[in-house]
């Protein structure tokens, strides 16, 4: 497979909570490909996306969407029906990985450590806590820490949670309740079949929420993370194993919490992102750069993998 020149449709935007991030990712990808001499068609996804993709007749679609419906299998299924070649993971993988409970069901039986917890109806939170405090509430199928609340004994949500307190219970009818894991936020990117590095994320205040992820200066990235070798090795092994078990393609990113008072027993996988961000602040490009892979080369590698995979499927 030669490196082009290709005609790439960069699919971005959409209508999820992560639309602004997707637009930044997509524009970065488009400029990188153009800098390497490829032809790019930018598509800000709307309800006519199938017709627009068909008209484009691109060699490959770079899926730079984040959140629903670009990351949950919906768009993947549409592109499968259209016979399009696209980057990142396919339908089944996307359906499972976007759903934190399904991800647990897929990975925990294979020995991947993940926090316990269960689905709760948001209405039930106003009567009492589903778990001992502190605990975490999060939407089942949103990414980028959208709608995450940490409920502590001395927090300002009330006890029980007040109906008029601002939180994810106002936006989602059901939530995933998990025990809160104290400690440090770690993340590992996987590209193809290789785990890259481990980054520690140190928010300047609060926790690593949506604003901390995408506002310059709000989070310190320590890459490679200053952690024991056995924790680095474990993060990379768990990220790669999870990538493979879920059937991820292209790039993925696994997020961890590590209770550094518990050693290896304190390391837990939180989720696997099948379409990690490609913005200037994003973690996958940062880890790749530390290994000598510049941004444009990273983008080309992801596109090339998709084209190679499609060629194998057609001839296999």
UniProtKB/TrEMBL annotation:
Location within or outside the cell: Cytoplasm
Give start-end ranges for the coiled-coil region(s): none
* Binding-site residues for Mg(2+) 2, renumbered to this chain: 271, 273
Q: Which GO cellular component term is one of those annotated?
A: cytoplasm
| Listed pathway(s) | Cell wall biogenesis; peptidoglycan biosynthesis
Q: Name one GO biological process term.
A: cell wall organization
**Active site positions, chain numbering:** 18, 144, 282
Free-text remark on how the cofactor is bound: Binds 2 magnesium or manganese ions per subunit.
Keyword check for Nucleotide-binding: yes
The protein's Enzyme Commission number: 6.3.2.4
Instruction: Report residues binding Mg(2+) 1.
Output: 255, 271
Entry superkingdom:
Bacteria
What cofactor requirement does the entry state? Mn(2+); Mg(2+)
Q: Which residues form the ATP-grasp domain?
A: 104-304
Record's catalysed reaction(s):
2 D-alanine + ATP = D-alanyl-D-alanine + ADP + phosphate + H(+)
GO MF terms held by the record? ATP binding; D-alanine-D-alanine ligase activity; metal ion binding
Alphabetized, the UniProt keywords read: ATP-binding, Cell shape, Cell wall biogenesis/degradation, Cytoplasm, Ligase, Magnesium, Manganese, Metal-binding, Nucleotide-binding, Peptidoglycan synthesis
Q: Does the keyword Metal-binding apply?
A: yes
Functional note: Cell wall formation.
**Family membership noted in the UniProt record:** Belongs to the D-alanine--D-alanine ligase family.
- What's the protein name? D-alanine--D-alanine ligase
Species of provenance: Sphingobium terrigena
């Amino acid at each position: 497979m030669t490196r082009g020149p290709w005609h790439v449709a960069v699919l971005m935007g959409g209508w999820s909570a992560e639309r602004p991030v997707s637009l930044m990712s997509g524009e970065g990808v488009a400029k990188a490909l153009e800098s390497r001499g490829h032809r790019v068609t930018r598509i800000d996804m709307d309800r006519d996306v199938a017709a627009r993709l068909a008209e484009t007749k691109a060699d490959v679609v770079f899926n730079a969407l984040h959140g629903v419906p670009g990351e949950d299998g919906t768009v993947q299924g549409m592109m499968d029906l259209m016979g399009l070649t696209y980057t990142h993971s396919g339908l089944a993988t996307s359906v499972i990985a976007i759903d934190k409970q399904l991800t647990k069901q897929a990975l925990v039986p294979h020995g991947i450590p993940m926090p316990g917890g269960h689905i709760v109806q948001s209405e039930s939170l106003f009567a009492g806590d589903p778990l001992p405090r502190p605990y975490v509430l999060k939407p089942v199928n949103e990414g980028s820490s959208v709608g995450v609340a940490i409920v502590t004994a001395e927090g300002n949500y009330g006890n029980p949670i007040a109906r008029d307190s601002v939180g994810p219970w106002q936006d989602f009818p059901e939530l995933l309740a998990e025990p809160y894991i104290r400690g440090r936020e770690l993340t590992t990117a996987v590209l193809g079949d290789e785990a890259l590095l481990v980054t520690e994320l140190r928010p300047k205040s609060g926790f690593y929420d949506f604003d901390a992820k995408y506002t310059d200066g709000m989070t310190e990235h320590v890459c490679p993370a200053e952690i024991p070798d056995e924790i680095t090795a474990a993060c990379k092994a768990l990220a790669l194993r999870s990538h493979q078990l879920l059937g991820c393609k292209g790039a993925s990113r696994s997020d961890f919490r590590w209770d550094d008072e518990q050693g290896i027993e304190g390391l837990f996988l939180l989720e696997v992102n099948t379409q990690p961000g490609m913005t200037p602040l994003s973690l996958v490009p940062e880890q790749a750069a530390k290994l000598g892979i510049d941004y444009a080369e990273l983008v080309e590698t992801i596109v090339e993998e998709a084209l190679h995979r499609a060629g194998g499927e057609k001839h296999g």
